[in-house]
Amino acid sequence: MTVKVTKEQLAHCREVAAAAIRSIAGKDGKNILKKLGCSTISYTLYNNMPTLVLKVAGEQHQGWVFVSLEEGKDGYVVSLLNEDHTLKRAVVDVEKEAVRQVLMDNI
Q: Checking CA distances to 81, which of 27, 47, 52, 87 falls within 20 to 30 Å?
């Protein structure tokens, strides 16, 4: 099933993804993305949440990482997906300041 996304929703996803990247990069800049083996950075609407999409090849996880903003809770869901996009693990209620550490611990 294809879901239509409005230009406004897509723009909001882009803003959320940019904020998530800034939070993940921290003081190290984009070097952390290299450490995670990140080869693709994108954004989408996933489970009706604006989402940063990363393709990674880390020591513990190879596949996709979706960092989704739960706007009602003002927290993030970090979803690890296999290459075929099946869910491997999800970490919920992640505070903005903790997203970077969750990625480092799981990738």
A: 27
